[in-house]
Amino acid sequence: MTTKNIMIVGVGGQGSVLASKLLGHLLTSQNYDVKVSEVHGMSQRGGSVVTYVRYGDKVFSPVIDKGEADFIVSFEILETARWLEYLKPEGQIVTSTQQIDPMPVITGAMSYPENLLDKIKALNIKVDALDCVKLAEEAGNVKSVNLVLLGRLSHYFDIPESKWIEAINFCVPKKFLEVNLKAFELGKKA
Fold first, then answer.
1. Of 31, 37, 135, 153, which one has the fewest beta carbons inside 10 Å?
2. What percentage of the chain has pLDDT greater than the value 90?
């Protein structure tokens, strides 16, 4: 199998690191060679965060270059736009429709781009967008957006749901397990 590439992008504190660890565990359980790399940047201050997950028969580097991502999983629509050049021409975006104002917008130096999701879709890019915040709240915790996104992403993989559930059970702390399993299911069914 050729190496496949997944980028998980968002803003610090949204749960992208847990999502990447869960994906890494899932793919390792399927006997793939897996490399995960986290780039935090200004994540502690709400800055951009990107995580690379690469898997295949043999993976030599954890880094994804421009034009190589099979999937971009995004927690926030501006982050989706920020990383578009990394998507393969036939790649798939799975994104939350959430908008989080970056510092230049908060300070009034810039405004949040209007109709960003429509502009991305106009580029003939495959976009699967849903209101992950609403679904996470329905699951019982707004912080479970990461599992809503993974539930949605699971549609694009030929991996049984039971294996996803096993990975969630392994990676998520017990006290948050019920909410996260529900969030995964809501994302999968959305």
1. 31
2. 79
